[in-house]
## 1
Amino acid sequence: MTSDDGFRGAVSLRPTPEQLAYSFGGHEPLLTVEPGTVVELSTEDCFGGAVRAHEDLPSRVCTFPYLNPVTGPVAVTGAEPGDTLAVHFADISPARDWGVSSTFPHFGALTATHATAMLHEPLEERVWVYEIDSAAGTCRFRARRSGLELDLPLDPMHGTVGVAPAAGETLMSITPAAHGGNMDTPEMRAGTTAYFPVNVPGALLSVGDGHARQGEGEVCGTAVETAMNTVLIVDLIKGRTPAAPRLENDGFLITTGHARPLEDAFRISQHDLVGWTASLLGLDQLDAYQLVSQAGLAPAANVCDTNYTMVAKLPKAVLGSAKAYDGMHERLRDAAARYLAAR
Amino acid sequence: MTSDDGFRGAVSLRPTPEQLAYSFGGHEPLLTVEPGTVVELSTEDCFGGAVRAHEDLPSRVCTFPYLNPVTGPVAVTGAEPGDTLAVHFADISPARDWGVSSTFPHFGALTATHATAMLHEPLEERVWVYEIDSAAGTCRFRARRSGLELDLPLDPMHGTVGVAPAAGETLMSITPAAHGGNMDTPEMRAGTTAYFPVNVPGALLSVGDGHARQGEGEVCGTAVETAMNTVLIVDLIKGRTPAAPRLENDGFLITTGHARPLEDAFRISQHDLVGWTASLLGLDQLDAYQLVSQAGLAPAANVCDTNYTMVAKLPKAVLGSAKAYDGMHERLRDAAARYLAAR
Amino acid sequence: MTSDDGFRGAVSLRPTPEQLAYSFGGHEPLLTVEPGTVVELSTEDCFGGAVRAHEDLPSRVCTFPYLNPVTGPVAVTGAEPGDTLAVHFADISPARDWGVSSTFPHFGALTATHATAMLHEPLEERVWVYEIDSAAGTCRFRARRSGLELDLPLDPMHGTVGVAPAAGETLMSITPAAHGGNMDTPEMRAGTTAYFPVNVPGALLSVGDGHARQGEGEVCGTAVETAMNTVLIVDLIKGRTPAAPRLENDGFLITTGHARPLEDAFRISQHDLVGWTASLLGLDQLDAYQLVSQAGLAPAANVCDTNYTMVAKLPKAVLGSAKAYDGMHERLRDAAARYLAAR
Amino acid sequence: MTSDDGFRGAVSLRPTPEQLAYSFGGHEPLLTVEPGTVVELSTEDCFGGAVRAHEDLPSRVCTFPYLNPVTGPVAVTGAEPGDTLAVHFADISPARDWGVSSTFPHFGALTATHATAMLHEPLEERVWVYEIDSAAGTCRFRARRSGLELDLPLDPMHGTVGVAPAAGETLMSITPAAHGGNMDTPEMRAGTTAYFPVNVPGALLSVGDGHARQGEGEVCGTAVETAMNTVLIVDLIKGRTPAAPRLENDGFLITTGHARPLEDAFRISQHDLVGWTASLLGLDQLDAYQLVSQAGLAPAANVCDTNYTMVAKLPKAVLGSAKAYDGMHERLRDAAARYLAAR
């Protein structure tokens, strides 16, 4: 990044419905930007905006595999396999004053699915419409079978962020894996920097699946789904690449694991956090294993998608003066603040 | 409870080494108390105090199955199968100024184990000794292969709390299951009320496995293990029983699931939280599923024991004026405060 | 064994209903025998004989935990922890001309269960009554919702065979684990020798859960359940003990793994087969791993019980002249033949 | 098929090394054939032929992702999404008089892997070279650390057979899933008809990964890998599509499940076998569940690949006169016999 403000200009990406993609891999870039560029982009919700009312059952108004549209891909100049793409989320704001959630036949954590195949009929398919009040910072839950209403805190995030996969694969946008994708972790909020392995020239970043908020595990299979206006900055770390996406915010180093069974997702995330900690603190592997064991957090992200996602978190307080990626997160955060202030 | 202070006297239980138990079930009570009684008890660490220095490798100084000793059982007068035993932790204080942690051959989340059987040799068995400074509220990590030292916040808890199992079973104290046992969740700290199913007359509560602190997942297999002095109050809820232990503190309703694979532990905990939420808020099951999906938290507890443990947490803010178990937690919390103040 | 016939007399064990046990561990022996003794015993079916007709729904006529009764325990003189108990099944014959099978609420592989907890209502509970024709060697399936009838080959076996568990545990008879128990493998038929770890003096063998036949996986949760008259011979191998039950017949070495998830049950069984093969053929671990990888079979046993069971099988053709346990299986098989011929 | 012999001519497909593919999806057809056509094709081994001797360690001589090459794709005229592609294997013959197997770093069932992430170093990487004697029907195992040699029966099969995936995905050839792919079941031998869902026009069949033989589970991660000359016949079933590949031979209906954890692979395969059985015998779902539970077999296929594979088998004896897909298997089998006889 070269400007005094720490970012290299801003570009906008507001795809038409026809430009939306439904996979990672298999697409030419919609946009190519230099490292350090701010990208302002819009995303559609996971239902393509087709679920707006109680009667809009997803299985009727959506058509597989046209679910979970993503905006992108954005190519980043100079990104080569073996590099790391850094993506800092400066702002994630609901683009609508409503969001929706739903059950979906044979999808979710507490239902038989196509993978956890059983002889049960699907649970009832039901839609909930949430009122989003961005000024108040709330989204309003309304029960469908009682009069209960209550406000939940708005906590906007993107469920789906990733790059083109390795090995020439093209994966549905609903799959989380080593390339990122549909990780569905509430940690992917504004103020977070995400680090992705670069698998193809340009990295090919795509973003979608905005959530006004989401519980850990995304138990019923969907969050408070809504369209978003999002501001992010991209940057590059040359010559190093993580095994799976890493995240960083002001308080935590965060690693992610995407696999089934859930203990393998846990193991992947913890294994990477042990390695990252060892590297930053100059510890041998077992000393880092010990430190992570006592200091780490381990919330579920999603337990409903085609892979499950666990995240592992280490408080940066234990890092002392060590900084991940030479302070990339802090630089991008500060650049984001200047950009937003100047906007 | 009948006294003005909300508790019915206090008794002490400081077992000799010979009185320590290594199972839930299969033991006569060491003590019988009325509901509402404060119990002050001491617990030994999971190694029976035998690991005190780097050279005290657990596999040498401990003898299977004499691991993870528990204090108890304590019988509660009037407890009958189908009831709920409430246990409020008023205080959990390290009884020593040191704690230990270790790897253990073929035990932990990032190693081959007897269940996840592989052809690898065990990882190195290594002991870490922590300095506990209760006044400062810290425990000091010292790396073994570098000079790194750092203080972690003290956050005392019990890994093992439970009652006699159902169906006449006797289970090793290292197993977490529907009766509680070695759940190893950091949520079991002072200020928490735990609710257990009563499976046998008297319930037969036992407590052990104090941790000066523990990361979520207990990745390496052990926490900062230390002896504890603990103050708790027991009480009874007649005629209702949870499927597995529930916890409550001032901020959260918490359910627990104990199973393998980890997604089943997750499912059990979420299933119970959905049911509990539905019952407290008068919601139908799907409305409660939706609310938990958006408002819940889902951290790992242990991913190393004979069953894995996940917890599910709902912020009590969403409950409005509804109170779990008619305010049992608040009553026990207040009684505990009065007892500690008067002590 | 000392007689010319290779067995040391025969005793009979036909428990009254009150003598039936529902656990491994926690019971005094009904009978004590010398190694080499033939035991003729009777077993009740897993429903205690209470399900006899379509209207006898198990959830109504059976009372938890009084399910899956076992006959025993039988103590074997001289058995000490660290030894191996050998049990050869000489004959397993249905004691009735009918058997039953059923679905059971929240039990089975293709239904939500208490562990794989979901929001579905249970599948329909339905009973099937089979006609057993021992002379013809068939059991007759009759569909409940159509007129289809067909004969399946009789293949009698015991689902539940085991010894008292280690570590002083008492486990429900429906649980399979390292002590054996409810393994539900069709390999446990007449002509098979099973080897169990001895965990307590006398070993304390119990047997139950006869199946007129069973598919691999016991998918719906029950087999063709029936009472059995069974002839077995017990013997001892001093100073060696397997990690989990092993089986042997004229064609195969068979190891068993009992765990969740199913891949851990697979891993345990394969790990033991690799070790057994290495030991018998004088191979290093990796050479044995390779041989088992190319020559082994790996059928599911049960995917419905509290632990799942996989078995691993190696054709004895690859063993050349090597014999497991110095030919114990062959000796017991021959003794059994002489006993049955003389009976 | 229209000829008197039941097949519509024969074509040959012998790709150059440059024509080999490493994915399902993402490739134009090498060949387009009519339904009923015999295809004679050659396949390279999973190492691309680069592992020929003990010193050819796969991690050195192979380059990810150029592993597990497949021959194809072959387009079948008239195949449309929603149809079923039938592929009958008439002959699978080793093209060499040697095969190889190996361990591979962090790959296999009894080792830490990238998914089951652990802190262990990889197991030793070791290559075994087998002598294949097609006339004798054997392949010769030679231990590497002892003098043991023994002949195993030749049982040639293809580990990898599949079609282009649904949803526009491109998947590495080492992944088994609903499109088939690297299922690694020993059931894929000559005499078997495999049925695949058609996801794209032409279906786009590819075949590779020949095994001179393979144990169930493919425990060490590789079988006796060799190049093959294979004869197959393709045909179409219009307007019906299975959820995942089904197989049929003269003795059994066979379904497949591809997932993690292994119990989900089991569930998928059993669920499909229940549905198939219900449909062929006119049973309701629970009656079919019962029949499969008592009559079915359930061997592991692979427990090492990116998804695990279980198969479920029902003896065709229980079908009476019912025939799957109107006798497609029998017709293709007979056509294959005529073709081979006339060749």
## 2
Amino acid sequence: MTEFSEWFHNILEEAEIIDTRYPIKGMHVWLPQGFKIRKHTLNILKEILDEDHEEVLFPLLIPEDELAKEAIHVKGFESEVYWVTHGGLTELNKKFALRPTSETAMYPMFSLWVRSHTDLPMKFYQVVNTFRYETKHTRPLIRVREITTFTEAHTVHATREEADMQVKRAIEIYETFFHELGIPYTISKRPEWDKFPGADYTMAFDTLLPDGKTLQIATVHNLGQTFAKTFNITYEALEGEHEYAYQTCYGLSDRVIASIIGIHGDEAGLCLSPAVAPYQMVIVPIIFKKGGEEVLDFCRKLEEKLKGEGFRVHFDDRDIRAGKKYYEWEMRGVPLRLEVGPRDIANKKVVTVRRDNGEKEFMDFNPETFIEDITSLMEKINIDMNKKAWKSFEDEIRTVESIEEVKKTMDELGGIISFDWCGDESCGKDLEETAGVDVLGIQSESEDGKVCMNCGKPAKHVALMAKTY
Amino acid sequence: MTEFSEWFHNILEEAEIIDTRYPIKGMHVWLPQGFKIRKHTLNILKEILDEDHEEVLFPLLIPEDELAKEAIHVKGFESEVYWVTHGGLTELNKKFALRPTSETAMYPMFSLWVRSHTDLPMKFYQVVNTFRYETKHTRPLIRVREITTFTEAHTVHATREEADMQVKRAIEIYETFFHELGIPYTISKRPEWDKFPGADYTMAFDTLLPDGKTLQIATVHNLGQTFAKTFNITYEALEGEHEYAYQTCYGLSDRVIASIIGIHGDEAGLCLSPAVAPYQMVIVPIIFKKGGEEVLDFCRKLEEKLKGEGFRVHFDDRDIRAGKKYYEWEMRGVPLRLEVGPRDIANKKVVTVRRDNGEKEFMDFNPETFIEDITSLMEKINIDMNKKAWKSFEDEIRTVESIEEVKKTMDELGGIISFDWCGDESCGKDLEETAGVDVLGIQSESEDGKVCMNCGKPAKHVALMAKTY
């Protein structure tokens, strides 16, 4: 693959995912093809969340005084909040923030909603745009100033244990979601200095892009009682006493789409899994001098049959060379191509060509079994793409035992490094600076007798580090 | 019905549609029940639009200079645009508007997208939040400062005729949509002084709320070449010459949900059509001392069966009086209640009670025909609600022939008045002032010999007027 960043920008344009020419830096236009990928991806997530969350929608604007209430939280965001100061030609009495995230929009309302222990747990989510005045270099879908697809869940619980359980449940939700998408990840507990502003602790999902840098694709925060105390979210417990609630929140963004594109793509362009592809199949007629009408007619019926079964299918009947069609649909990542020529019809066959591995097969066109065969092929593609992505991901996680090795590995290979760590903030920050990496977080406890790779003190944790986006 | 405004506010709260306590005037929270009604409503619209429009998503923020490019347009909006002036602690070089509508966000991009006549027509839509710094009294879903459900379509065409045709097509789209929802409307051509800023002409849909005032629920604008010239949207025609494109745009907002609630509701609360109801049916077990388990078991199976058929159904097995359940679900507008008691099971019957007209029936519980019977009952409810709404709407349209009659009718009855009009702006504005109404617009040509109701000159148009929201 050519340089990833260039490839990524090109494919966004060529496959008509995003138009980056909008006249504000870091804010982009979702084009029809991109919008469809986004929609199918969101539908998968919503189906999972809808099982036990309620979808809601809060206002975009947050009054200055609400945003400022939680001191640690506002400190984490104040340098990157956009401010609305005027309505028409009038200066507003109180300025409004464009939400950078919605804790301070939601929690004043939660304070009104939560009354009794019987109201709990409460679990909500919303899909919204959020804004960050990023000073770092922006990149479409990866680091933007308008995050268009922020999917944030917020839960309220009666006890610390229930909040801890919800963190585990949220992790399962995202595992299921990324499994459907075939996106591999590590899960780690972010170091103290990198947790969500206001959280007790943050669990994070990171994946790896082809340039060897990790991308944070989801986070789950246990908020403890911090916000409940700030926003006075209390409930009446069994014995009538008022207790502060416990909260969690978790979310993900447009970066999920960046991962789908970056991880599965190749030199030929996009490679989409049937789960999110705008078209899951394209039918290409192979027409010779004779029998053209018969082929077109067969293809039309095939399209109709597949559509009737709920597949997203396109019949490409343009009068251009088949090769040009192959090229285009491969670039756009359509998971399966069905080719039909006169000989195939005579032999009662359809040629299937997989986008993910190029495999070409002759599938029996038996009305009894065809839909079943196509369905299993689709499932197989999903599974294979998942496996392939996990395989290369795992190959890029390396255990390293000295700081020299870290530098060498990072320079030559990139990827994720697993190491033993004392857990001290000063040591971690020193390591980040020396090796030019970020500590992603803690995965597990160190084995007895292990020492910290950086400082030599007894190790507490097995941790991960990487160059990050 | 009690005073409409009070009823409306109460039902938004009681049925958990919207929470109006958010700490910014005119900006509200969609609660889970409201969000579901909104979602089902949007899905109906999207299904219609998706037939020949592509869904896209443009940024919220519009640079000041783009917004200012179209002089008439910006004049129409400048007094009510929210401005972002700061990013973090830094003042921005160029301020950004929160979109009041998206012409000036989209059309600079259209200028890049439209190249040749073969690119046309282009038809896009998006569902977004838009902002208006309203100085008038705000009302939830009716006049708000954050419109959360702005569904705007924008099309580009090669000729004036095609743009005119698209206006007709857009009107058909909205007719289909409102038909599905059972919302009655008039369609009229807005007077010159009330058209969309920048449009050649505006066609508008108005419905009527129970307080006798009309509510604009959708508009369709023929933009001619005004924006194409401002934003340089040109295409290469057949002979290679560059021509300015023709454009239309059309949209609707949260007001559709206000109409659903206001038009079908009654003293008992919400009354939802099966098309948009969060729950289309609620199953209430009628339990006596004996046979309780059998009833619960039957209800559970019934719920499962109906869910399996794709119905949105809820089994209310709470241990409270059936009467309390009736009251609650009626207030929330569930279209159909299924009651099941031991005697019904013995008789192989289910009791159905319609929300819209209170009709109670014993439906045979025959596994062969039950789903079909329920499906037709659902359809019948939809049709009957539509008919009923249209009937009362048409009763409120009155033809009036003198200005005294206008005042009397408006004071005593409200509603919509049809009248003959000369069509002159000065006469129209005089009429608006004298009678305290708004001219909605023109419906058709006057018959020969008719005179203007206001000024006595020969009449040109049959027009509509009303007190409006």
